[in-house]
Amino acid sequence: WKAGGSGAVGGWLSALRGRCVLPSDTFLAKGSAALEKLEALCGEGSENTHPSKLLQLYTQAVLDITYFEESQLVDEDFPEETSLEKVKELTSVLSEPEDLVTECSINEDPINILGTELVECLYWRRGALLYMYCHTVKERSEWLQENIAIFKKCLNDGVHYLMKMLSFRCPLRINEDVSLQDKDTARLLSEGIFSDTHLLAMVYSGEMCYWGLKLCGEGEQESLETPDPAPDSGPGCRSHSAPLDFRELGKSMLTKSTCS
């Protein structure tokens, strides 16, 4: 960390600070306040501050500032000419906290540095953003016909993000120690549903799998990753190359969510 971690934070801070030059908003104000606190800590000398504290502050700023920008996209109904690049940009920014952990040469899993809730939120926000984007553009028949590969990639990446978000906590194992009055709660926890956001992630995943089957057709979902993707090839800088079985995964997610 001392060899260059604080410098890495400073570089990422400058880029994030530029995103605050936007209309006033509660989330922007929160993000800006987090940045100011982070800059003050860096100015005092990061040797006296644990890296996890700095990285958690940075992550919270990323989440607050990008939330405002995502809300603008939703309010504007994802403008056809510009929204794909904006979605790509936001998914990239939401990947930065984990990248920064690596760049700072911290030999720890990001979840041990940032904490489970923040890491879950980073994946949830990317998956939910792609869900909302797909929910909107699937109604644009001409666009969909011309960009079906991009649409499929958005679905594939979005489901991967949501499944990753659901994987960070171990489902509760139900046994004889679970009392009767806790039975319903225990059943939810045994399915990995620890909050309404976890439940919504399951629903979103199931819906996206359904759209994949309905609009992209049956058959194995091929990888959409390319060695050097074109700028307009998809929403994320990191393609999730593992093919998805939309039918089986969707059935599993929707069964769990409806039974809950």
TrEMBL record:
InterPro entries: RIMC1. Pfam families: RIMC1. One of its GO terms (biological process) is mitophagy. This is Chromosome 5 open reading frame 51. Residues 222-244 are annotated as: Disordered. Transmembrane segments: none annotated.
